[in-house]
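so i finally got all the pieces together for this one. its three components total, 1135 residues if u count the protein bits. some of the lines might not be protein, just check the labels. i wanna see the whole assembly predicted at once instead of chain by chain like last time, that was a mess tbh
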Amino acid sequence: MAFEPVLTRNLGRPEVRTVRGYRASGGYQALGRALAMQPDELIDLVKKSGLRGRGGAGFPCGLKWSFVPKGGDKPKYIVCNADESEPGTFKDRLLMEHDPHQLIEGCVLAGYAVGANTTYIYIRGEYTAAARILEEAIRDAYGEGVLGASVLGSGFRHDVYVHRGAGAYICGEETGMLESLEGKRGQPRVKPPFPAVIGAFGCPTVINNVETLCCVVHIVERGADWFKSIGTDERNTGPKLYAVSGHVERPGTYELPIGVTFQQLLDACGGMYKGRALKAWIPGGASASMLTAADVDIRLDFDTLAKAGSMLGSAAVIVMDETTCVVRATLRLASFFAHESCGQCTPCREGTEWMRLILERIESGRGSEGDLDLLARVVPNVGGISLCALGDAAQGPVKSLIQKFGDEIRDNIRNRRYPLPRVPFFALGAVA
Amino acid sequence: MPTVTIDGRSVEVAAGTNLVEAALEVGVQIPHYCYHPRLSVVGQCRMCMVEVEGMPKLQAACSTPVTKDGMVVRTSSPQAVEAQRAIMEFLLINHPLDCPICDQAGECGLQDYSFKHGQAFSRFRFEEKRVYPEKERIPLGPNVMLNMNRCIQCTRCVRFTQEISKTGEIGFFNRGAHAEIGTVEGRPLDNPLSTCVVDICPVGALTSTRFRFAERVWYLDKKPSICTGCDVGCNITLEHRRGSIKRYKPRFNPHVNDYWMCDFGRSTHERYRDDPRVTSPAVRRNGQLVPASWKETIDAVFQGIRVKRADGVTAFLGSGFLTTEEAYLVARLARLVESPHRAIWVDSGPARAIPNLRGGIVGRDAAPNRRGVELAGLVPGESGLDAQTLLLEDGAERCAAIFVVDSDFGRAARDPKVVERLRKARFLAVMGWADTPLARAADVVLPAATHAERDGTFVNVQSRLQRFVRACPAPSQARPGLEILAELLSRFEAKWASVSAATVFDLLAEEVDAFSGLRWAQIPAEGQTLPSLSGTEGAA
Amino acid sequence: MSHLDAGNGLAPEVVAAVDALRSRYPTEEALLLPALHLAQRANGGWLSREVMAGVADLLELPVSKVAGVVSFYDMFHDQPVGRHRIRLCTNLSCLLRGADQLADQLRRELGVDAGEVTPDGRFSWVPFECLGSCDTAPMAMIDDDYHENLTPDRLRAVVSELD
């Protein structure tokens, strides 16, 4: 699949980590062009491009920018969501470690569009290398006049600060992130008010994912029409980074037009690991419902997957072969959600733990006849009435387990034993 | 002001009113735990989910404001009812079945909503309930006990110590199903308002160490009253079982104490139980106090206070614990025996601050009614003896008779030197509920009722007149001070034969300017500022 | 692990580093996460009661709030840790490629359960959620570094090379 890389075009060129090197590869030209535009023009451009958020929610980026009130005496903020904690996702890390200036340019562009003079890059605490690389790139950017009191001599001030998280998936939720930025427990807030009106420190704030901001650079450089020409339709546009992991030959980040099919992506990864049969796969991170071998021709974009009862999310594709016990896989994801629940609201705090306990019982061979029915009744209440989307997300894997692998659960329960022998991944003496 | 329709009933509310409050306006109670009108809105218990027309998902009523016309809300639609049932189920799966040993039983948010909104069976059959090891009885501080297993993580207590008492002792720790409230080692929950967290905790996680295991709440008789700890006059609910007071709880009054009261105030009823009480009228014969009839004792006082000028003067000593009506009768009495010696003693106490939405209120007297007593006329007349002279100097030596109308007027009532000084008078009559050394030194003892056993009014530090009625009858032969004084007065003037606090108040309202125009039956439930006196007194 | 007394018990370089960040944020409270990272690093990888109280004092926050924040995040430890902290990813992608075997190996060869410190104080290990390196699964974060494409042998080798 030959696709001219856009976001990953600078991969393998460590010199782009400096301003000079980035400029030599064509960088910061988009910023120069944008500073000569009116901020509103920039917002319209991004709207026209059809760019949707690449963090998981898929919200139209230009529309989000347009929610920021104009004028007013409160400062505005850009918060770059670099928390990347969705299981199976590692594409933002790639972008930050290999092409930090692409992100910095995107932040300044966003700031210019909405009138914000400060960006906080909220990066998950575990990404120590990426944080260091970003800090160095930022220092260089200040030195070269790309950041500071007058960006590229335009008179527009913009500061970028790296703010490290400390290990909590819920800080990837917009308002959980804001709380954490403000020095508190990362517990999501009630919405409304929305961050565009009351965000960081009580001020209008735009929160965008790393990949989204990087896309903005190229939209400004090559135009909205170019961006729209890539992808499925005008609601699913642009290049997309797919992070593939699990039982494939070549796990990694693949940049392809949004809307490639799963089969096409699998082919790009060298096919199934050791040629084994596909059993289940997750298209977009832990919250996305599982799909099966029957779905390999599905297009991996926002709308197609939503219609199929799943989601594109962060485009973290996890592939499971025939040796996988899906009950165990679902239990692992259920444990993840239970561990990451912030604990504020009743349905998520109690419900994620309850689901985990039921699945643990089933997986360890202590399931009982009514458990499938019980799960089916409990799951709908965990989401829908929770304070934030984590409750909704936690439903995904369990729902799809019941819908698509009901037989396997029943088998587990009936036989009161682990149905599939645990195949040690590392056979004696072999190297993976 | 926008109009909102809730369960078919429409009402106009101030823009920004949340749906829980708006619903109360039309008599609909939306169930909730984490919401409290005085705490920040967190919307986290998810109990208050309601259906709002036009919105696909249920909305949390506490965090949904009414901003414009046309909002239509259904609090009991099938969707809302199912959500309420689900939340109750989630809350109960990990909740210990402690009802038989839990103080909260009978006034518990989980019990109440479980009946109304929950289900009658449990599906949590094989899993083990979450427990917080070693946290079943943790004293968070001197007044509050925590059982973390019962907590529903509503964080009302956390927000209270951050936003109301502003002392920040209680924090929220850990994440997810192991989230817990608690204090940090070395920094216990110890502020003047600490027991308020027990009031606002919907369940039995936080209980009062004073009230722990004291009584089942369904045996308690609950009567509105006023605290006598200081001159703030917090409105309280006095809860007793057959006259034995078990608990004070704050009663909402936005002008005075809002939803709160201090720990000290809560403890003030314990003296009625712990201190010895005068039970029978008595007169001194042959140097000994012997029980006598009411007629005998009142006759003795009647004789004793009418002295010959040559022998000395008659002085009266009251306290800040008298009701306004009682004080008025004492002043009347003093006038009848032509005595300007009308003294009142009030201890000053430590400042007690109660927050409210009007800047808060601070009490500095250790008694509730100095202002009312003074306004009613119990102040020294021209060249009359005052309390200072009587108690601390030699004023008593000039007295042929002293009538102390409150045996427990202050700390000095137990001071042997003060008792000695007062005893210098030839005739000493003492009325009151407490059997103090002063009472035991008297010639005549008149057992009186505590404030829980009589009707009356107090005027607080804001010059607010507050009315209260008796919660229970006085025990054995004790009688309300008002009745005793009226009977004494009827020896002088027949018209006092039959009185009540109401009739006395109406009388004094006609005579005393500060109360003009007021009538007992028309005193509002939340009290009334005396118009001529409202000033900045009492501001925090 | 001793500190020069800077009034609140924190090492002076920690206080100085926090001060240097003040201009970045409009509130004192926003300094809390950076301050805790700095204080933890200077205190051997964990936050004792005293250090937390020092940070609370420095930023004028109630201790209960600081302790509440510390207990919320997985990278802040309120109990002593080993000189080297091993965070083994056991989320789905790593699990699919053998992470559970590596967890068993750590338990066996280090001789301690997850969350415990080896008697010589050298190691502590915990299973961790997705660390964002799923294409190089299984992997672990040891101190500040990612160790990727682990096998039983490779993990053993990495651990043995740590002091």
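Residues 12-72 of chain C form one domain.
The two ends of chain C are 18 Å apart (CA to CA).
anyway lmk what u think
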